[in-house]
Design brief:
By secondary structure, this protein is mainly alpha-helical. Helix 14 packs parallel to helix 18.
């Protein structure tokens, strides 16, 4: 296991209280319905929570914060960089009428559109900051020298943002935003910092324009899952389900379902890939082990979605369309003051989590092909 980066600290009463209070506020925000998250009030509170989390991490280990050199210089540059994207980040001014790239991104992450698959992006900044804090001792120990790669990255980010701003392509500006922040870190703290911080910083890729990649993948996922469900239901369970494209139906017409974009499994695929990536980089140093574990996200996500679709078909075969619809909605259980909890919707993640942990234990026993330090 790769546990060298983190270190245990003893928290005093004030630190425990601050951490507990933040957890309550954090859980309260994320527990709200998507309709509320789409409001301006929720957006402001989200960015306040993000700033509070950053301050909390400093408060939990102020000693490391004091050891970090050139932090004033870095955060001054960062403030200028963020201001650029706040006031000159988005040039479309259409449905999301704002010049702020951050507001444009937030609106995309928290759209009430039921097909929206980007709500997990709200978690990425908290996750990256938390993992940076986990690696704090390793990062602070790196030699700090200004480097030209950081400057080159910054120049490329500026050019990419100008390209996106002029051509009204905010997705290019999103990539430029994170590339520039990464470049600023290299400019202030050096190339070794860039190498050591590549993980977790590259997780911001999940905050980028994934819809460009997701849309074509979603179609093939819909087709593959529907075909696989038909085969398993027919040849293993003996259910005479028929398929036409991505539609599954009973020959007698008693039930029928369409594997729509929201049911393709793309949401679980992205979430499982994110979990696998974090687990791979935290637990292992060998690149081949990391890549292998990350690649397993695809079959595990397909398997989980297959189980969910089979449950829907089996329920419909036993009790008709109504039974199938109930399972399709996740077999919701009403919890007072919380709302409906869709238990079955969590099913796709069960084989993935169990499988990743089981294979991870197996990989731990295998020798690394090389003993180089991770980047």
């Amino acid at each position: 296991m790769n546990n060298s980066e983190g270190s245990k600290i003893s928290l005093n009463s004030a630190q425990k209280f601050a951490a507990g209070l933040f957890i309550l506020l954090f859980a309260g925000w994320f527990a709200q319905k998507i309709e509320w998250k789409a409001t301006n009030t929720a957006q402001v509170l989200y960015f306040i929570l993000l700033a509070a989390f950053f301050l909390l991490l400093i408060f939990l280990d102020p000693k490391v914060w004091k050891q970090l050199s050139n932090k004033g210089f870095f955060f001054a540059l960062l403030a200028v960089w963020l201001a650029l994207f706040q006031f000159l980040g988005n040039s479309i001014l259409g449905y999301v009428h704002t010049s702020s790239l951050f507001s444009w991104m937030y609106d995309g992450y928290n759209s009430p559109n039921p097909v929206n698959d980007s709500s997990f992006c709200d978690l990425i900044p908290f996750l990256v900051l938390g993992l940076f804090w986990w690696k704090r001792n390793e990062l602070v120990a790196q030699p700090k020298t200004k480097s030209w790669p950081g400057f080159v990255l910054l120049i490329l980010a500026i050019g990419l943002h100008l390209f996106g701003y002029v051509l009204q392509q905010p997705r290019c500006s999103v990539v430029a935003l994170f590339t520039g922040i990464y470049g600023l870190m290299g400019l202030v703290w050096g190339f070794e910092w860039l190498k050591k911080s590549f993980f977790p910083f590259f997780l911001f890729i999940f905050s980028g324009p994934l819809d460009i990649v997701i849309q074509p993948i979603t179609f093939w996922l819909r087709y593959f899952v529907s075909a696989l469900t038909e085969w398993v239901a027919h040849y293993i369970f003996g259910i005479g389900v028929m398929r036409q494209g991505t539609q599954l139906f009973d020959p007698s017409g008693s039930y029928g379902y369409d594997v729509a974009a929201a049911c393709s499994g793309i949401r679980s695929l992205v979430a499982i890939f994110l979990l696998a990536t974090i687990y791979a980089f935290i637990a292992f140093r060998a690149p081949w082990k990391r890549i292998f574990l990350m690649a397993l996200a695809v079959p595990f996500a397909v398997l989980g979605n297959l189980l969910r679709m089979l449950l829907i078909i089996i329920a419909a075969a036993l009790g008709g369309q109504d039974w199938g619809n109930y399972v399709h909605e996740g077999c919701p259980i009403h919890v007072p003051r919380v709302g409906d909890i869709a238990i079955v919707n969590l099913l796709p993640y069960v084989p993935a989590i169990i499988g990743l942990l089981w294979i991870g234990r197996w990989l731990e026993k295998m020798p690394d092909a090389q003993a180089k330090e991770p980047s």
